[in-house]
Amino acid sequence: MKINVDTFQINDYLGHDFDCDCGKVHTTNLEIVKIKENVKEDILTYLKEHNYHTIYMIEDKNTKKAYGEELEDFLRTQSFEIDKVVLTGNVVPDEKTVFQILVNLKRPYDYILGVGSGTLNDLSKFTSKKLNLNYGIVATAPSMDGFASVGAALITDDLKTTYDCHVPTAIFGDLDVLAAAPMEMIKAGLGDIVGKYNCLIDWKIAHVITGEYYCPTIVKMVYQSIHKVVANADGVLKRDKQAILSITEALIETGMAMGFVGNSRPASGSEHHVSHYWEMKLLFAHREPVFHGIKVGLATPGVIFLWHELMKEDLDFDACKEKVRAFDKEKWTAEVKEKFEGAADGVISLEEKAGKNNIEKAVERIDVIASKWEEIHEIIDQELPSSQTVVDILKSVEAPYRPSQVGLDDQLTKDALVYAKEVRVRYGLLQLLWDLGLLEDYSTKFVEYYKNN
């Protein structure tokens, strides 16, 4: 069977193996997605059909109030045995929180049901994998794209790390609950989606330069999700249910896309790495967190601006090689220890394994970049929107589009551009700029862009 992006609805992607022109067979263990009013009846039907009787619910005090308590009471009236853990405070997906979830286990369970969004989904996914149980997620806010992905993003040893786990078998969302979610979380979901404009370009350029696997069908699937969200963006501030449904389904579909290709390429690029760097720095400083999608959204126009700036360069590729040969590993190590603080050892270890900053490999890549420069130009000119296009979308929902709007100063903005590539092993704009010896100069452009726009 083939994927037909033009006609498929969200559940058409489930329950099939898809032979793709990219050479892969795409499949997912996700069985059902229901985003609708009065969804608890669908949850009931699903649990009964699978003979899941003893349920462990993972929620926090906010999601318990939003829907967890109502769902628990309903399932108890249907003779389900329910235990739960209700996490308190600003829930951080770290070792301490995982222990809290595990220590509250009271008996063997048939199924884990998370109630919430980003952090609670990651914690439910990770816990269920460790317990060798299936899990489902009941979304209470359309705030991020990890619902259907295989990865769980946790903070271990102060470093944000994505663990390979498994997809949920079911995703549910009550439209009334989703539409009533905090507006910042809804804006975060939209911000996460507009970040795809850049990540898909990062992926395609990586394919051109490194030969990394790339799937045009999955790319088209993600673009379809972006267009659906943008077309309904004017309903976001009104909490229009069609706008909420569009965002929620787009977030799920991009998660499915990650599952289809086996990694986060269809949904995460340089804009996400910048967001991850900011997230770690806010955590180290014990500052109030900013929703992931909000940071992704505001990082996106700046990253897109740099792509277009790069296309204006008349590059001397021999000079680029000399710059990269001047890389000082000792200086880099000292800077990593200063900037990444408690996460520095993890970053250094990651580099030792991956060799992102290996000089000879970078020189080889420069030769490829030089030979592919015209093709790279065509991709950026034809496929990447302007930074202003993204800013206009963010402004239309009154979402932040400058780091200063969420308390990120010029130094944090500059540092994010320089050091964010160390957070992941992923070729994209940031690694490309490093290869060309332009990363430091472009970090200044990054800061100036936000000051002037």
From TrEMBL:
Keyword Transmembrane helix: no
Residues in coiled coil: none
A Pfam entry, by short name: Fe-ADH_2
Protein name: Glycerol-1-phosphate dehydrogenase [NAD(P)+]
UniProt-listed SUPFAM superfamilies: Dehydroquinate synthase-like
EC number: 1.1.1.261
Entry keyword annotation includes rRNA processing: no
Alphabetical list of Gene3D superfamilies matching this protein: 3.40.50.1970, Dehydroquinate synthase-like - alpha domain
InterPro entries xref list: G1PDH, Glycerol_DH
Lineage, uppermost ranks: Bacteria, Bacillati, Bacillota, Erysipelotrichia, Erysipelotrichales
Keywords: Cytoplasm, Lipid biosynthesis, Lipid metabolism, Metal-binding, NAD, NADP, Oxidoreductase, Phospholipid biosynthesis, Phospholipid metabolism
One of the protein's GO biological processes: phospholipid biosynthetic process
Organism name: Catenisphaera adipataccumulans
GO molecular function: glycerol-1-phosphate dehydrogenase [NAD(P)+] activity; metal ion binding
